[in-house]
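User: Last request for today: this protein with zinc ion, please.
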Amino acid sequence: MADSLETLERQRAEILRQMQQLGDMRRGSVVEQYLRCGKSPCCCKRPGHPGHGPYFALTCKVAGKTKTRQLRAGPVLEKVRREVHAFHRFRELSERLIQINEEICEHRRVEEQVEKKTSWPRSGRRSNRKSKAS
Ligand SMILES: [Zn+2]
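Assistant: Here's the final one, the structure of the complex with zinc ion:
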C-alpha cells in the first residue's frame, strides 16, 4: 500500500483548498502575434521580417470554433493572463483530484473486503471513518 487512506484524504482536501483560492478563470490561451500590415511599401514586406508586433490575443475554442479577441499590452493583458493561468492550474488540480479520488476508491474497496472476511462489527468501524464532508 503506497499511501494510507488518511493521507489520500488529506491530499484531496488540500487540492480542494487550492481550487478555492484560484480566483477568476477563463478558458483559452494568450498568444503573441506578428502581423503584416496593408501598407506598401513597408518594412514588413521584406523577406525575413517577422511582421509588426507583438500583438496579443486571447484565443479560445468554443464548440469547435476558435474565437479570438485582440488584447492591448498592459493591465488588461496581465489580467487575462492571470485568468487563463488560473484555468490551466484548475485543470491540473482537477486531474490530480480525479487521480487521488480513484486511489481513495481503490483503498475503500480493499477495506470493505477485509471487513467482510474478519466480520468486524459494522457500526464501530463506520463511525471512525471520515466522511467527505469533513
Ligand atoms: Zn508593415
